[in-house]
Automatic annotation (TrEMBL):
<dbReference type="InterPro" id="IPR029058">
    <property type="entry name" value="AB_hydrolase_fold"/>
</dbReference>
<dbReference type="GO" id="GO:0017171">
    <property type="term" value="F:serine hydrolase activity"/>
</dbReference>
<keyword id="KW-0378">Hydrolase</keyword>
<dbReference type="InterPro" id="IPR000073">
    <property type="entry name" value="AB_hydrolase_1"/>
</dbReference>
<feature type="domain" description="AB hydrolase-1">
    <location>
        <begin position="83"/>
        <end position="187"/>
    </location>
</feature>
<protein>
    <submittedName>
        <fullName>Valacyclovir hydrolase isoform X1</fullName>
    </submittedName>
</protein>
<dbReference type="Pfam" id="PF00561">
    <property type="entry name" value="Abhydrolase_1"/>
</dbReference>
Amino acid sequence: MCCNANIREALLLELLEDDIDLNVVGAAVEILAQSVDIDAMDMDTPDDFHNHVRLSKGRFQTQKIDVDGQTINYVKVGNGPKTVLCFPGALGTIWSDFKPQVENLDREKFTIVAWDPPGYGYSRPSNRKFGIHFYRNDAICAEKFMNTLGIDKYSLLGWSDGGISSMILAAAYPEKVEKLVCWGSNAYLVADEVKQCESLRDISKWSDKMKAPLVELYTEKGLSDMWNAWCDTCVKLYENGGDICKDDLKQIKCPVFILHGDKDPMIAAEHPDYLLSNIKMAKLHRFPNGKHNIHLRYAEEFNSLVTKFLLE
């Protein structure tokens, strides 16, 4: 998101670290945070984080490109032989979701591409569109985006929603996807996940400090409309049996690295094992104390593990 919107993590950090019951709506807004660990970044206030993100954006200039009439905002850094596309989660963008990877992955070994998915952040117009096929639509758009950039082969780093779309992309375009890394992702929905979604639906119940950065980016109505559409989609998917991309897993031919935080409150504990059992060339690494944001909370270890996997 824009630099102001990146404060969302700073404002939500206390929820991430305090283990507050997700049945409490305010605490459950962590689903939006997909957070950064401010405590590990030598910062004391949201303003410090804001300034830090602004400096990062200054060092890495974003660009815009048209993909079938959709504006796509992205950043491309490094000149390494291995290209990696970073795929954000729900409402997520380059700087909210992949700052430690854009900044710290080896730019001599990798060419790192990170984007704001369609309708998120600065990838507007057009505004975000949901519906039960949005994961698949994002995957198709990502492939077209990389094709527009002239990149024929690449690996994927997909977080949460971005991990789901990355699995779909890998299944649909096996000739293009060399390797896949995903975390915080699932191939289907369970009842508790839909209940969490419903508990978060009404943004008027969110605290002002939690909501403000997103409102700055999307406006109050825009945020409400977007979030309700996301919630509606989750409900519809669950009512249709909960399947998101189960069949796609069997079509994935590339090596897959699943990472999981064992204390992730956002997805059911069964999901990483299901992915491991249903993707042929998959392996799993667990962070025993990790939550939903392992690539941010444990950025150095995460980057090291991912680098080793992508280069082996």
